[in-house]
Amino acid sequence: MNNFSWIAIYPEIVLLVATCVIAIADLFVTDAQRRVTYVLTLLTLVIVGGMHLVYFRGGDTLYAMQRMVVSDPMGHLLAFFACAAVFVTVVYARPYVAERDMLKGEFFTLSLFSLLGISAMMSANNMLVVYLGLELMTLSTYALVALRRDHAVSTEAAMKYFVLGALSSGFLLYGMSMMYGATGSLDLGEVFRAIGTGVPNKQVLVFGVVFIVAGVAFKLGVAPFHMWIPDVYQGAPTAVTLLIAGAPKLAAFAIAIRLLVEGMLGLAVDWQQMLIVLAIASLVIGNFAAVAQTNLKRMLAYSTIAQIAFVVLGLTPTVVSGNTFSAANGYSSAMFYMVAYVLTTLGSFGVIMILARNGSEAEEIADLRGLNQRSPLLAAIMAVFMFSLAGIPPTVGFYAKFAVLQSLVSTNVYGYQLLAVVAVLLSVIGAFYYLRVVKTMYFEAPPEGSAPVSAPADVNALLAFNGAAVLGLGLLPGGLMTACVTAIRVALAT
Q1: Are 484 and 340 in contact (CB under 8 A)?
Q2: pTM for this one?
Q3: Model confidence over 394-451: pLDDT tens digits?
Q4: Which of the residues 66, 118, 119, 344 has the least number of beta carbons within 10 Å of its own beta carbon?
Q5: Domain count along the chain
Q6: How far is CA 136 from CA 115, 119, 168, 314, in A?
Q7: What range does the domain containing 205 cover?
Q8: Residue 21 half-sphere exposure, CB side, CA atoms within 13 Å?
Q9: Contact between residue 393 and residue 250 where contact means Cβ atoms under 8 Å apart
């Protein structure tokens, strides 16, 4: 162990200790509103997020635990946004879970343990660490989906999520075992070097890549590994849906970079073709299926499949005509897109939770009828989120789509340029179902007897900030894009 072993994982150590302290402290909390647990959770997220931001600004790359863990700018930037996503989730979710008798210590501690698994995946330099982080994250989310034990739909969603999640973990583990058998190591750097020598059995490597890509695709939620997303998004309590739709997506992007790029770049010609097929299938299935949905959560679930397809597209220009000059451009654009998507999704589900009142849900698109008359501010913020998901300027969603498409077109390869055209055409279909939500809010009469919509001050303030961030990053995306480019370039260089 080198001198940097503990320094590299200080944020994870603080998160683990704080989570254990919160779990024990909650045993002595008698307040039904769990104010102490709530404040301690937010304080932990602020401290850990701040530590990741400081590490990112330092720009150093450190290896720890016999090189099983890496502390680099990419991991810390993604971990910072993961902390921010969980922070926003907890604030938005508190009124919702309180109404449904879910405001218990388990909600907070399981969310933090899920974040710990996410952090482990983001800092992994060994396939075993990736798998351990993945299991910690998924086991926590399985329990969260089933937290409302007396609700049949939530229990059914948890069972589906558990069975399909176990299957995908098996794919990933089997692929890792084949990589170990071919290269003799689970260390990503050693795997990269072994593949570069050309000595390992090519067929075994390709089979390993197929299983690993399948496992990563499931966690990203791209077709044809998308079958769990609509059912889980709709069936889980909206607060848990928000948690699943946020930080875990950042973790899935991180392990895609760690495994496919840092470990198996020598096999890029094989896996980038798979990613292209997955991206096109996701754009087609996600957009066309979303058009037919009347349930808002289910519509957003299918739209997620189409949105993540753009992230996958950004990972495809890895080896173009035998060189990797387009890699950093594509990866940084994909990273920017993922952050933008998570930011917008947090706000969208936040609005759905505010509309869910008196124990009843507001999951149908029809439940948003006349929202402009009941709460003009809420309708305006939701419209901003829908415009961003549709890729309409000046929102961050437009710039994110533009950045990914630019990374494809700049390869000067006809196939990638055609892929960009196909993505644009299919995104036009996506604009229909997003604008349908805006039309429902502004041009349809509210339900009879509907009352004005209100929310706690902290939720309103954070939601307004969330909407402002979606607009602000669309108008001034340079800072975030520069951070993404810097993080990716350092990751590729080490």
Answers
A1: no
A2: 0.93
A3: 999 999 999 999 989 988 888 888 999 999 999 888 888 999 999 988 888 877 767 7
A4: 66
A5: 1
A6: 9, 10, 14, 28
A7: 5-493
A8: 13
A9: no
